[in-house]
Automatic annotation (TrEMBL):
<dbReference type="InterPro" id="IPR039420">
    <property type="entry name" value="WalR-like"/>
</dbReference>
<dbReference type="Pfam" id="PF00486">
    <property type="entry name" value="Trans_reg_C"/>
</dbReference>
<keyword id="KW-0804">Transcription</keyword>
<protein>
    <submittedName>
        <fullName>Transcriptional regulator</fullName>
    </submittedName>
</protein>
<dbReference type="GO" id="GO:0006355">
    <property type="term" value="P:regulation of DNA-templated transcription"/>
</dbReference>
<dbReference type="GO" id="GO:0000156">
    <property type="term" value="F:phosphorelay response regulator activity"/>
</dbReference>
<dbReference type="Pfam" id="PF00072">
    <property type="entry name" value="Response_reg"/>
</dbReference>
<feature type="domain" description="OmpR/PhoB-type">
    <location>
        <begin position="130"/>
        <end position="227"/>
    </location>
</feature>
<dbReference type="InterPro" id="IPR001789">
    <property type="entry name" value="Sig_transdc_resp-reg_receiver"/>
</dbReference>
<dbReference type="InterPro" id="IPR001867">
    <property type="entry name" value="OmpR/PhoB-type_DNA-bd"/>
</dbReference>
<feature type="DNA-binding region" description="OmpR/PhoB-type">
    <location>
        <begin position="130"/>
        <end position="227"/>
    </location>
</feature>
<keyword id="KW-0805">Transcription regulation</keyword>
<dbReference type="GO" id="GO:0005829">
    <property type="term" value="C:cytosol"/>
</dbReference>
<dbReference type="InterPro" id="IPR016032">
    <property type="entry name" value="Sig_transdc_resp-reg_C-effctor"/>
</dbReference>
<dbReference type="GO" id="GO:0032993">
    <property type="term" value="C:protein-DNA complex"/>
</dbReference>
<keyword id="KW-0238">DNA-binding</keyword>
<dbReference type="InterPro" id="IPR011006">
    <property type="entry name" value="CheY-like_superfamily"/>
</dbReference>
Amino acid sequence: MGKVKGIKLLLVDDEPHILQFLELGLVNEGYEVRTSTDGMSAVMIAEDFQPHLVILDIMMPGMDGFEVCRMLKHNNAQIAIIMLTAKDEVGDRIKGLTLGADDYMIKPFSFDELLARIGARIRNQFPFLLGEVVYGPFRTDDRRKEITYAGTVLELSPTEYELLRFMVMNHGIVLSKPAILDKVWGYDFQGEENIVEVYIRSLREKLKDKEHQLIRTIRGSGYRMDFS
């Protein structure tokens, strides 16, 4: 996601260096953040802080993440929970999801992937919080279905809007044609993959990206949106 405001996150992990790293990064993204190193205090903080989303480690001394997840969902069914674990155990994922977790990440993970997953959860469960979001030179507005680039509102078709929005939100990540088709056109799209090239060409023209410095073609892999 880009810079956001008014979205509250609670981070729960018994490893202080992980908490500090995540807190610094998420505060820099504009989130309001609280932290906890144990399950019981996490439940108490959540009761007072009322976070929209909780990033919750499973393996903690005393009350583990599963019990914290159960209690948080019992107290507030709308809260979004992303669970963290140091090992890829199918049983853990099933147990967490059964208790109400909304997503699952395995340590170590990239911060960019965590941001993308937080964004997905917020869009799905609290879309009214987003409104305008800033990503570098881009400003997206889901309510108006508009994207502004370098201060200018782009004239986009509905499909161009969805494609550019998807690429901007995932800037720095290589997106394959199948991934783009699935997200923008839908999993049941029966057309040719080349439709992506047609729309990419149109976006480059509207962005005046003649040198392909903004939307880069990664040969054999797909496309990557680059901006600072």
